[in-house]
Specification:
Layout lengths: L2 H15 L5 E3 L1 H6 L3 E7 L10 E7 L10 E5 L30 H13 L10 H7 L17
Antiparallel strand pairs: 1-2, 2-3, 3-4
Length: 151
């Protein structure tokens, strides 16, 4: 078994046994294809996204965990957030240049829940329309500019 598969098995076990609050991995999606997961996420209590339900898709390349997974929001309910584009792409540094093999699906989910929880105003990124028209399908191919650490 490749190191990626061993690592994903271990992470799936951890996510199943002790998931972060409001986060649940869709085990059926993992059993079909181990390198693509669907994770259900619920907005935290007391936040703008309280009780809202979202889905994340994780795609793991062969170099995982040394290379970050591709993570996007799926479906009709993509959060309206200054760092989330209407196509589901997420502008979050740990998904690209700040990735570390010490991070996991669990820590990525916690970071996304935290990002949503700290939001004070539901709005799309200012460049949403142009980005969605011109971006690659893979958000990891985007050269993100992290200019707003306040949201």
């Amino acid at each position: 078994m490749a190191s990626m598969e061993k690592r994903l098995q271990k992470e799936l076990q951890a996510m199943t046994k002790d998931p972060p609050p409001g986060v649940q991995v869709d085990q059926e999606s993992c059993s079909r294809v181990m390198n693509e997961w669907i994770v259900d996420l619920e907005g935290a209590t007391g936040t703008l996204y309280e009780a809202e339900k979202f889905q994340l898709q994780f795609k793991f390349g062969s170099k995982y965990p040394f290379d970050s997974p591709q993570v996007t929001f799926l479906g009709p309910n993509i959060p309206i957030h200054p760092h989330v584009y209407s196509n589901g792409h997420i502008c979050l540094s740990i998904l690209t240049e700040d990735w570390s093999p010490a991070l996991s699906v669990q820590s990525v989910c916690l970071s996304i829940v935290s990002m949503l929880s700290s939001c004070t105003e539901k709005k799309r990124p200012p460049d949403n329309a142009i980005y969605v028209k011109t971006c690659s399908k893979n958000p990891k191919k985007t050269r993100w500019w992290y200019h707003d650490d306040t949201v």
